[in-house]
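Q&A log
Question type: sequence-to-structure
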Amino acid sequence: MPILLGLMLQERQILTNVFLTEHDGDAYRFSGWQTAITATLLVIVLEELLPMLCDGYTRDTWDYLAYGLGSVAFHFVVNGGQSIEQETEQVDT
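Response status: OK
Response body:
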């Protein structure tokens, strides 16, 4: 999960740098909600839909725990634990 979310974060940072020149794309971070929703959607696709559609994929209930722990690790280690909007609000107060 940290690899997938990390790649998605990297893509957002690059797009922010390219299209929003007044923002610092490297400072872009996912909010907790964005991390949770993205992880949930990935779990549904990878653990529920793919095993139903293809015989080569298997559903494993332990993977849910691994996805959850990986998402938490991503959010606090790679992502820095908070989004740029939250950091800005803390500086303004």
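Response note: Helices lie at 2-19, 32-53, 62-78, 84-92.
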